[in-house]
Automatic annotation (TrEMBL):
Name of the molecule in the record: subtilisin
Catalytic activity: Hydrolysis of proteins with broad specificity for peptide bonds, and a preference for a large uncharged residue in P1. Hydrolyzes peptide amides
Keyword Hydrolase: yes
A Pfam family annotated for this UniProt entry: Peptidase_S8
Top enzyme category: hydrolase
PROSITE patterns hit by this protein: SUBTILASE, SUBTILASE_SER
GO MF annotation list: serine-type endopeptidase activity
Lineage: Eukaryota, Sar, Stramenopiles, Oomycota, Saprolegniomycetes
Keyword Magnesium attached: no
């Protein structure tokens, strides 16, 4: 593939060379050392061009831009030579700090990996690196130096290479890796032409006779150079070429700290691993450049030791020196990448990045309270340390004494970057699944070998879609340590629990509101105009991961695809059912055939019960993701041709940096399946987008109302790494669809409408006027609810009702609608309508009733949260009196109850 990539780039460059020849005439043939580079399609004339020549080139449609050639810098903050005997030690402090010896103890020392640097060269004869230089295709000096073996013009490059692969005095992170080098900086500055020449040579190296061999390219390239101009982008085409060839680019972040927004380039690029510097006490080095980038992304990506680093002194073959700078931090990360690749050959950039940022040390870091870019220093990633300080240890917070429950062991997944299907043909999809299954079987063998026979092993879960292991029951600390020491294990973490995304999943019966030619949302997106072209979804299979679907509901009973059409990972039921109504409502909106509720009524549907109630355990969601990739029937027979075309996911987490579902999304994408996710309901502040909706691999959807305004609850972007989300918005307020109460029930699913509807219906039978919804107060109420404060009043001051599932012990209390009825039902019988007081003599005994029923109340707002210790509903009222005059109800309580909940 790399040969093909290089050929394509070269062909393009040859056309550019012809353009120059046509425009400038004989100059090319007689040029002293004009340079053309295919890696970024650039032309560097050997001497000055005339103004007329520049104008001729600029007028060509083939020329994107003409600019002054850039000059990059090498800027270590400090450099001190030392006698070798002074610094002799088992391991240097930085090597120990990132836990390299722990990786070495597992046999991970970089063997089989080739690293490179673009720098001032390397003193090849130095004792620390002389034995692991790869001589063939191992050296290039574009500045014209005659040396056929590596040399160093200034010392910086020898120091950085020593930190990556040095084999003496404990200076190197990956001492078994091989190294090659290119001189991009013949002094403390680095000319753009030389850097470009090095970038191109490392993409597809040539030997001393100029013979190319792209198989000799390195696996990872260290770049301890850059510019203080954080907006320079000239190097990005070269980074893109490296990435396309599977090469990992690591860059120093710059030494322009300690103020915010000082990150340099190319370290600022979203396509490279940008590295900041820490000192021996884990404090951020004063010189380490901070983010955000000019376009407000978080940088650096990670931090590593960069102060008083001992490595090679280029003046002798056994000299060593101290240097400080992010130039010294980046090689620690490059070495760590080499260690990872030696254990995970062929790993993609995404896998390397996930491993680096997932195995970090946060506990010892000291926030400096700068909060650069508005990102708190106490959260990670931030614009000081990035994700935190690099560490080889895997989720050390799990390694506590005793037992740990509900963990997930993440094994190294299959590299899907090269497996994206050009089409979703049966053979291609089956081949993908076979590759995933083979990798999962290896993981199971690792678990069997490491843990042996376990009492609960019969109910362990292994998923091939993301190569994860969910142990049944608990693991001991020693078992977790043993697994963490396996080179096949990428990370061990606590299992995630997501939740379905509507502000509440239980809805009310919508009476006559359901009867319509088309519901407002269906009309708003102009579905009927598409139906007129005979495009109703026929021939397409849709799926959802949700609370299930009521199969017998009139709106969806006729278009269920019964073969390979239902999976219940936990209970094992064989026909679709719905645990609380949310999934039926969602599927009705997608493919409903009655009352104009469905956008694609001609489509077939299948479903997986990933959320047995309003919460969705990680293992259950993963089981659904895998089943939808290649469905099985009731007997367990697989048929990958039965996979759906598109999967709806109206669930998620408020943790907008969580990436555990990414491997499953990648597998869907590789199989040609379209993933759609809700964006979250944590608005209306910026940066509230949840996960997996934040993923760049999915279509994330925000919510609008019938006036095309953005719903107040709809989560806003940007993502944690400053990408735009949602991808688009669609109707999401007061949506009428199928509901699971009966086969003919239709419902709204919307917090605002549910509580407002219930409250006003109760007030109406008492001849009390309606209240409106207070949007501003609702935001404050939801913020209080999201904090999960437990059973306590708070948030905005005022007259407040609180209900919890734990308190009442009834299923209805889980519902938003149930909360309004609870407050009314429990206290209405205590209300004395003659005296307008509570019959017990204590106002508090009827306080919920009087708040909700006071005629003086003009508006209300509520917040709801599903917390670890129960479901809670808080409602504020503006503004009741303690002893309101409440007329008697016009109907019985039984009649009122029947009209409230379907």
């Amino acid at each position: 593939y790399v040969h093909q990539l290089v050929q394509t780039l070269s062909d393009h460059s040859n056309k550019s060379k012809q353009v120059v020849a046509d425009l400038l005439g004989a100059r090319v043939e007689s040029a002293c050392e004009d340079k053309f580079f295919y890696i970024d399609n650039t032309y560097f004339p050997c001497d000055k061009l005339t103004e007329a020549q520049v104008r001729n080139l600029a007028a060509s449609p083939h020329v994107a831009s003409i600019a002054k050639a850039a000059v990059m810098e090498l800027s270590p903050v400090q450099s001190t030579s030392n006698n070798a005997t002074v610094i002799a030690t088992a391991n240097q402090w930085g090597v120990d700090k990132i836990s390299s010896p722990l990786a070495w103890a597992k046999g991970k020392r970089g063997a089989g990996v080739v690293v490179a640097n673009i720098d001032t060269g390397v003193r090849q004869s130095h004792n620390a690196v002389k034995n692991n230089w790869r001589a063939d295709y191992g050296w290039y000096d574009p500045s014209g130096g005659a040396s056929v073996t590596p040399k160093d013009y200034q010392g910086h490059g020898s120091h950085t290479m020593g930190t990556i692969v040095g084999q003496v005095n404990g200076i190197g992170v990956a001492p078994d890796a091989k190294w090659i080098a290119c001189v991009g900086c013949s002094s403390s500055s680095c000319a753009q032409a030389d850097l470009t020449a090095c970038a191109q040579w490392l993409l597809c190296p040539t030997n001393s006779q100029g013979v190319q061999d792209c198989t000799k390219a390195p696996h990872v390239i260290n770049n301890s150079w850059g510019s203080t101009n954080g907006q320079a982008t000239w190097f990005l085409p070269m980074v893109a070429a490296w990435r396309a060839a599977g090469i990992i680019p690591v860059f120093s972040n710059g030494n322009s700290g300690s103020v915010c927004g000082t990150v340099g380039s190319p370290g600022m690029s979203p396509d490279v691993i940008g590295v900041g510097a820490s000192d021996a006490s884990d404090a951020l080095a004063y010189f380490s450049s901070r983010g955000p980038t000019y376009d407000n992304r978080i940088k650096p990506d990670i931090s590593a030791p960069g102060t008083d680093i001992v490595s090679i002194d280029f003046n002798t073959d056994n000299g060593y020196a101290y240097m400080s700078g992010t130039s010294m931090a980046a090689p620690h990360v490059t070495g760590a990448v080499a260690i990872y690749l030696s254990a995970n050959p062929g790993a993609s950039y995404a896998q390397v990045y996930a491993a680096l940022t997932g195995s970090v040390d946060k506990g010892s870091l000291t926030p400096n309270n700068q909060n650069c870019g508005g990102v708190s220093d106490s959260t990670y990633p931030n614009n000081n340390y990035g994700y935190a300080k690099i560490s080889a240890q895997v989720h050390r917070e799990l390694l506590v004494e005793g037992v740990v429950q509900e963990v997930v062991v993440n094994f190294v997944p299959v590299n899907l970057d090269s497996m994206v299907l050009l089409d979703a043909s049966d053979a291609n999809r089956s081949g993908l699944v076979d590759a995933l299954i083979a990798q999962s079987k290896k993981a199971k063998r690792v678990v069997d070998n490491v843990l042996g026979i376990r009492i609960n092993g019969h109910c362990d879960k292994f998923f091939y879609i993301d190569n994860t292991f969910f142990p049944c029951g608990s693991l001991t600390t020693n078992e977790i340590r043993a697994l963490a020491n396996s080179p096949s294990v990428q990370s061990i973490s606590k299992a995630v629990v997501a939740r379905v995304n509507p502000l509440k999943v239980t809805a009310f019966e919508s009476d006559a509101a359901a009867a319509a030619a088309n519901q407002w949302g269906v009309d708003k997106i102009q579905a009927s105009a598409v139906w007129a072209t005979n495009a109703t979804g026929t021939g397409i299979v849709v799926a959802n991961i949700d609370t299930g679907v009521r199969l017998t509901h009139e709106a969806v009973s006729s278009n269920w695809r019964s073969d390979f059409g239902w999976f219940d990972p936990d209970a094992g039921s064989t026909t679709p059912s719905d645990s609380n109504g949310h999934g039926t409502h969602v599927m009705g909106t997608i493919a409903g055939q009655v009352n104009g509720i469905g956008v694609a009524p001609g489509a077939k549907w299948i479903a997986c019960l990933g959320c047995p109630n309003s919460s969705c355990p990680q293992a259950t969601l993963t089981a659904c993701a895998q089943w939808l990739l290649c469905p099985t029937d009731a007997l367990g027979n697989k048929d990958c041709t039965k996979a759906p075309h598109v999967i709806n996911n109206s669930w998620g987490s408020t943790d907008g940096a969580s990436t555990w579902f990414e491997p499953s999304i990648s597998a869907w994408r590789a199989a040609g399946i379209i993933p759609v996710f809700s964006n979250g309901n944590s608005g209306n502040d910026c940066g509230t987008v949840g996960s997996p909706g934040m993923s760049p691999q999915v279509i994330a959807v925000g919510a609008t109302d019938s006036t095309d305004g953005l719903a107040y609850f709809s989560s806003r972007g940007p993502t944690y790494d400053n990408r735009i989300k949602p991808d688009l918005a669609a109707p999401g307020v007061n949506i009428v669809s199928a509901y699971a109460a009966t086969d003919t029930t239709y419902a709204y699913i919307n917090l605002k409408h549910q509580l407002l509807f219930q409250t006003n219906k109760i007030r109406a039978v008492h001849s009390i006027g309606s209240v409106t919804w207070n949007d501003g107060l609702a935001i404050q109420m939801q913020a209080w609810a999201d904090a999960c404060p437990g059973f306590q009043h708070g948030g905005p001051s005022g007259w407040q009702n609180l209900a919890t599932y734990d308190r009442c012990g009834l299923q209805e209390c889980m519902a938003i609608a149930g909360a309004a009825w609870l407050w009314y039902d429990q206290e209405e019988t205590l209300w004395n309508y003659d005296t307008n007081q509570c019959s017990t003599g204590a106002w508090a005994d009827c306080g919920h009733f009087s708040n909700m029923m006071s005629p003086q109340v003009s508006s209300m707002a509520c917040g709801w949260s599903e917390c670890g210790n129960g479901n809670y509903v808080w409602c504020n009222y503006v503004t009741p009196v303690m002893y309101p005059q409440v007329p008697l109800s016009a109907i019985s309580k039984e009649q009122l109850a029947a009209s409230l909940v379907g």
